[in-house]
Write a structure and sequence with these properties.
The complex is a heterodimer of chains A (about 300) and B (about 375).
Chain A lengths: L2 H12 L16 E6 L1 E2 L5 E7 L2 E7 L7 E3 H6 L5 E8 L5 E13 L2 E11 L8 E5 L1 H4 L3 E5 L4 E5 L17 E4 L1 E2 L5 E7 L2 E7 L6 E4 H8 L9 E6 L7 E5 L4 E4 L2 E4 L3 E4 L11 E3 L1 H4 L2 E6 L4 E6 L4
Parallel strand pairs in A: 4-9, 5-8, 15-22, 16-21
Antiparallel strand pairs in A: 1-11, 2-3, 3-4, 3-7, 5-9, 6-7, 7-8, 10-11, 10-23, 12-24, 13-14, 14-15, 14-19, 17-18, 18-21, 19-20, 23-24
Chain B lengths: L1 E4 L12 H15 L4 H13 L8 H14 L3 H14 L3 H13 L3 H14 L4 H13 L3 H14 L3 H13 L3 H14 L5 H12 L3 H14 L5 H12 L3 H14 L4 H14 L6 H5 L9 H8 L4 H8 L6 H18 L3 H14 L6 H11 L2
Helix pairs in contact in B: 1-2, 2-3, 3-4, 4-5, 5-6, 6-7, 7-8, 7-9, 8-9, 9-10, 9-11, 10-11, 11-12, 12-13, 13-14, 13-15, 14-15, 15-19, 18-19, 19-20, 20-21
The chains are: A mainly beta (about 300), B mainly alpha (about 375).
Chain lengths: ~300, ~375
């Protein structure tokens, strides 16, 4: 995302917090929206959004660059589609270079006008979704994924530091968060005893790592007895890539561990894009209750069912 | 350090609360569904048996378990789960999937009803129109297919969809509209061979065989390593009764695809028509998989099988039946032609014209041959 568009988006959604400023001494969370999360057949999650009066589900995708609409819906609604200023590529190399402007966008009780969205080819979307909710919107809030209860909550980022874990009195993990230029969530995790950088990507339904990372960091090479080929997958509708499974023992997040994490190893060079070494998709994230404090640069985690 | 367990490890959570158990089983099912459907069926069954499973996850678990049953070809069980999922929540994918189950069960009216329910639910999703359109073409509902093609292009004006519209126009006999759509498809994906090969079929079906030959030569420039391309070229040469050239094309194809049974059959057919020696046929056949279709056809040509045995073999796999029956009819017709039994061959060709799926190279070849025969 460009700096320009970030400013535009901040302005677009900024007014939504008006009237509800958090006092410096008021540590209560100010909830802006609480939406029912729909779980897709592959475990990904979506929430209802209304675009120009048309309501449908949008995939919550912390790994995308900008919120987006299905090209087919944009055409059906007669929305103008133009070339975007920047060109983006989805995992696998799917090119995104079209944009449109939505007259009215509604997310729960939140509303904005004249909002720019990328236009997506249908092959990168779930069939029952009409678009993606990306970091351009998400990073204006604190974002909570309560997978076990099926709730997606948005809070004001104005609150006291380190006081967001309201759903349990038990201990929780507090993980430092780095945001890249696209608003992507990057954290350090320990996988099988080795510290690596991971991207938290709710748009990826499986956690994934390339074979080259598996080999260079973990010494997992073709012929390793623990490595099994699962078959092939056409990720984002691109040509199928061989995928492998390796029995990693645990991924650790500053105090919380997921044992036997389900991580796919992708056997194709085109996925080596210089991004994080591990993509943490919903197959792993669904085991957790996740609270993303974008402004605070913190990720708060507990086991998904912990209350 | 807290520890939670995922996927395989979830089974160890013996003392967790009911919600945790159902949720954990559900998650384990999600992880297993793609590559271990049998394992996933067990997880989803456990999750569904637990009343604590979140109501919003119940239709998903039913849908996914139905999908796993489908993968393992247990269509009756898939139907039960997908219907139960739909009863809880009308869903585009569940309708499409159940339509596919009906299709596999040879219930075309029920399949069409479900595809239509999916399209009605989400008219903006191209896949629904795309699949229904293909189904309509296969079941010869060309008027409906053309309508879907128009709707599809309105929401997704892409090359592949124009190619599909070209096919619908071709099948309905409107060759001018078919060529127009095929040319638009080429213009939208100018560096691809795919829409060009589609245009070849339009020209071939329209009987414009010289142009079809030029078009296939042009298409091959964009994909010199194509497997389909040389086959298409050889068939058009054969239709033009340039049997020597056709034989040469199929022989070249076999140099890089020794196990290509179809190139082997066409080489024999073309050489026979050209009165050229085909004595290496027995050696060529040794490279062809004897346990998979179309091995029975190869055996027919070798003299180790009969037309009746070929037709019986064609019916063995219900999922591939229509294509195999088409091929059995077409290649047995050629076998009969080689023996001078033109009347028998014509009857088989007429059956092939009726039975061949629209995407098969044998479909236009059979129609053109019938027209050319006295």
């Amino acid at each position: 995302m460009t700096i320009r568009s970030m400013l535009v988006l901040a302005a677009a959604f900024g007014w939504l917090a008006a009237g509800a400023p958090a006092s410096a001494r008021d540590c209560r969370l100010q909830q802006f929206a609480s939406l029912d999360m729909t779980t897709e057949a592959d475990g990904a999650v979506s929430v209802p959004m209304t675009i120009n009066g048309h309501t449908g589900l949008v995939l919550i995708d912390t790994g995308s660059v900008q919120s987006s609409i299905a090209g087919s819906l944009a055409r059906q609604l007669g929305m103008p589609i133009t070339d975007s200023e920047s060109t983006y590529s989805f995992v696998g190399g799917v090119r995104i270079d079209k944009t449109t402007t939505v007259d009215t966008l509604e997310l729960g009780t939140l509303t904005t006008k004249k909002f720019p969205m990328l236009v997506l080819p249908s092959k990168v979307l779930h069939d029952d979704t009409i678009g993606m909710l990306g970091p351009d919107i998400l990073q204006n809030y604190d974002v909570e994924f309560d997978f076990a209860a099926g709730k997606f909550n948005l809070f004001s980022p104005e609150h006291c530091a380190n006081q967001v874990v309201y759903w349990t009195q038990a201990a929780y993990a507090e993980v430092p968060l780095h945001l890249d230029h696209g608003g992507h969530l990057l954290i350090d995790v320990v996988l099988n005893g080795k510290s690596i950088q991971a991207g938290v990507d709710t748009g990826a339904f499986r956690s994934a790592m390339t074979m080259s990372v598996a080999q260079s960091v973990f010494g997992i090479a073709p012929g390793d007895p623990g490595l099994t080929q699962l078959g092939t997958e056409a990720i984002n509708g691109t040509r199928p890539v061989p995928v492998y499974h390796y029995p990693f023992s645990a991924v650790q997040f500053a105090g919380v561990s997921v044992l036997n994490p389900d991580i796919e190893l992708l056997g194709a060079d085109r996925f080596d894009t210089g991004g994080p070494q591990l993509i943490l998709g919903v197959s792993t994230l669904r085991q957790l209750h996740v609270y993303v404090a974008y402004d605070e640069r913190k990720l708060y985690l507990t086991p998904a069912e912990q209350r | 350090m807290k520890t939670i367990l995922s996927a395989v490890g979830l089974l160890l959570l013996a003392t967790v609360q009911a919600l945790a158990s159902a949720y954990s089983d559900f998650n384990a099912g999600l992880s297993a569904r793609l590559h271990h459907p049998d394992l996933a069926i067990g997880y989803f069954t456990s999750a569904l048996a637990d009343p604590a499973l979140l109501p919003s996850l119940r239709p998903v678990a039913l849908f996914d378990r139905g999908g796993c049953y489908f993968q393992s070809k247990q269509y009756d069980l898939a139907l039960i789960d997908l219907s139960a999922s739909l009863a809880l929540k009308p869903d585009f994918d569940a309708y499409m999937y159940r339509g596919l189950v009906y299709y596999r069960q040879h219930k075309p009216d029920a399949a069409l009803a479900d595809f239509s329910a999916a399209v009605a639910l989400r008219p903006d999703v191209p896949k629904g129109l795309y699949i229904r359109m293909n189904f309509e073409m296969e079941t010869r509902r060309y008027r409906e297919a053309l309508a879907d093609g128009g709707a599809l292009i309105a929401i997704e004006p892409e090359s592949a969809n124009y190619s599909l519209l070209a096919t619908a126009n071709r099948l309905s006999g409107d060759y001018a509209a078919a060529l127009s759509a095929a040319d638009t498809a080429i213009s939208l994906d100018a560096n691809s061979s795919v829409p060009r090969f589609n245009k070849v079929t339009v020209l071939e079906t329209a009987g414009r065989l010289e142009e079809a030959l030029d078009a296939v030569t042009d298409a091959l420039k964009y994909r010199p390593q194509s497997v389909l391309g040389p086959m298409k070229k050889g068939v058009v040469q054969w239709e033009l009764q340039r049997y020597d050239a056709a034989a040469e094309t199929f022989a070249d194809a076999l140099k890089t695809q020794r196990g290509n049974a179809y190139a082997h059959l066409w080489l024999t057919i073309s050489r026979n028509a050209a009165h050229v020696d085909d004595s290496d046929a027995t050696e060529r056949a040794t490279h062809i998989d004897r346990n998979a279709w179309p091995a029975p056809l190869v055996q027919l040509y070798q003299g180790t099988s009969t037309p009746a045995q070929v037709m019986a073999a064609a019916h063995l796999d219900p999922n591939a039946e229509s294509g195999q029956v088409c091929e059995a009819e077409f290649y047995t017709a050629q076998w009969q032609m080689m023996r001078g039994r033109t009347g028998t061959a014509k009857a088989l060709l007429a059956s092939a014209v009726r039975d061949c799926p629209f995407g098969f190279v044998e479909a236009p070849a059979a129609a053109n041959q019938l027209k050319a025969l006295p």
